[in-house]
Amino acid sequence: MENITETTKAKPKSKTRKRLWEFCNSSLGIWVLSTIFIGLITFSYQNFSQIYKEQTDKNKEIKSLEIEINRRLFIFNSEITEVAKVDTSKKSYPSKIEDAIRKVNSKNCYVFEQFRKRKLSSLLYELYALLPEKNKAVAYEAFEKMFIIEQFPAKINKNTKSDKATGYFDEIVTYTKTSLDIKDWNK
Predict the structure, then answer these.
(1) 3-state secondary structure labels for all residues of 86-124
(2) Any idea what the Cα angle at residue 17 is, between residues 15 and 23, rounded to 5°?
(3) Nearest partner of 121 among 133, 139, 136, 107, judged by Cα
(4) What is the Cα–Cα distance from 48 to 148, expressed in whole angstroms?
(5) Could you report the per-residue pLDDT of 30-42, keeping only the tens digit for each?
(6) What is the mean pLDDT of residues 67-95?
(7) Cα–Cα distance measured from residue 154 to residue 147, given in angstroms and rounded to the nearest whole number
(8) C-beta separation of 120 from 72 below 8 A
(9) What is the pLDDT of residue 32?
(10) Which of 94, 110, 108, 100 is nearest to 79 (CA)?
(11) For the chain, what are the domain ranges?
(12) What superkingdom does the record give (predicted)?
């Protein structure tokens, strides 16, 4: 008795499979399957194309930011290095640093028009936001250091002793020579 019940239960499965195969081998079945298959391929290709385009646009934006930031940092480093070479008494450091910061953030110091009205620290932060997680640390450190440098004129005023101003200047020179050397963010 048990064998008969098992056989009768197995028959509906084989009947269903047989009907399914018959449908798949019919003209209508082949048309339905090919439509589904082509639809999936088209959908996958569109998704891939969109993701690829977004990634390409993001990479272009990162590259533009790198070029803009590197140019501004080069100008800033040149200004600071020049001050350090020329003024050994270090009395003009505060005003020269303020001038260098102003020059780097001016509307005339840009490579790409889209970054014309942006400060260097905002460019660094945007780069930080666009980079993959593994590369963010270097860009964020550079952003923090540039933010501190941009606050330099507020720290130094006419009442600040020149020794303290010199200390700030030395700190800025250290920042620009070490932490702002941000060539590692794209590795």
Answers:
(1) HCCCCCCHHHHHHHHHHHHCCCCCCCCHHHCCCCHHHHH
(2) 105
(3) 139
(4) 42
(5) 999 999 999 999 9
(6) 76
(7) 12
(8) yes
(9) 92
(10) 100
(11) 2-186
(12) Bacteria
CB burial of residue 143 (10 Å; 0-12, 13-18, 19+): buried
- Can you tell me which residue has the tokens 């460019």? 123
Is residue 6 pLDDT above 70, yes or no?
Answer: no
Give the whole-angstrom CA distance, residue 20 versus residue 33.
Answer: 12
Contact of 146 with 121, CB cutoff 8 Å: yes
Place of tokens 């932060």: 125
Q: Check residue 26 and report its DSSP letter.
A: S
Per-residue CA distances from 34 to 19, 42, 184 (Å): 18, 12, 49
Measured CA distances, 68 to 64, 65, 112 (Å):
6, 5, 7
pTM: 0.66
Q: Stretch 135-149: mean pLDDT, rounded? A: 80
In 3D space, the residue among 133, 98, 128, 126 whose CA is nearest the CA of residue 112 turns out to be 126
